Task: structure prediction
Amino acid sequence: MSKFSDHNFAGQKALIRVDFNVPLDKQTFAITDDNRMRATIPTIQKILKDGGSVILMSHLGRPKDGPEEKSSLKHLVKHLSELLGGINVQFANDCIGEEAVEKAAALKPGEVLLLENLRFYKQEEKGDEAFAEKLSQLGDVYVNDAFGTAHRAHASTAVIAKFFPGDKKMFGLVMEGEVSSAEKVLHANEKPFTAIIGGAKVSDKILILENLLERATDIIIGGGMAYTFYKAEGGQIGNSLCENDRLDKAKEILEKAMAKGVCIHLPNDSIIADKFAADANISTSLSNNIPDGWMGLDIGEMACETFSHVIKNSKTILWNGPMGVFEMEKFQHGTKTIATAVAKATENGAFSLVGGGDSVAAVNQFGFADKVSYVSTGGGAMLEYFEGKVLPGIAAINE
Ligand code: AMP
Result:
């Protein structure tokens, strides 16, 4: 594997797997959130500045049966050109085949070509070797900058790497940033290391919790998943979210934590509601004594205080999952308070990484994205990384 910043791309055609899976307006196909495109611009610019040319490949949406208008990457061309300072971005109506081959071959230094959606071919997700080989022939160097799909062994994210020698395959800047931040947290030498895990379901977070038991000093559990833990301990949780088939697992996690000396913090109190709705009547309650007919939809004031105290004393922080139903105003307070505490700890020198779809949405929504050390772009990939899995997109480059 070659290091991106050390590589001189002069005269080379760099084939970059990017994550341009951006949301588009259903009617106009206008891009409604361009963060993923913006993230990759420095990678593209470095190559162009070196005197190389760039061929971009990505998936967009979930096309089921070949090409479809709503998943065409052609909708991104104009905006990509603007993000690159107005340079002309060429487009190939297919990611393989004659047009792609001709346009790639004709690219001159400083030029950019965007290929049509990779997932218009079923072979992409199947990790088909022949398809990967065809893609590989378009460029001289392979750069993987798509952390969001690094947990998939697809043709363009992993299989393709075998068609490039070690010094012609590398991570781009997004991928480098993601991997080094994740490594920094996972192998946290700076203790205390606090992991904040929230969101709806325990079942989605069991593997990450188990892996973190080996690494963290403190684990804060908030969000809907906290009530399964309370119920496992014999608490009354009313109509709160609960996974009855995970009660034993929750108990086991609490016992393992105790044995390992990892401190698990559950929210002592909750903001409770009489229905799951923005206009619900609300009250407060101890989280292990929620009346029937009521449900916990956010952490309460005592929990906010305890959690903030733990977070502010931490040196390494990982945050995955909101503390409550932050999409509704009445249940935002817990998540906002935790975001404030993470920002404060960061200001005081802690390294903080926010990863996973909804906590990222929350820090963006509340304006905290630039007050934490790193915001990961890869939800599923980040989660699998912290579960201790080897991500195929990373392994393929490292091999
Ligand atoms: P996840 O994708 O597992 O991280 O879950 C995120 C979702 O969990 C968000 O949509 C939140 O609204 C939801 N959530 C957080 N806390 C609760 C709660 N106490 N009850 C129900 N849903 C919750």
In short: Residues 199-201, 204, 223-224, 241, 296-297, 321-322, 324-325, 327, 356-358 surround adenosine monophosphate (CB under 6 Å). The first strand starts at residue 13 and ends at 17. The domain at 179-386 is CATH 3.40.50.1260 (Rossmann fold).
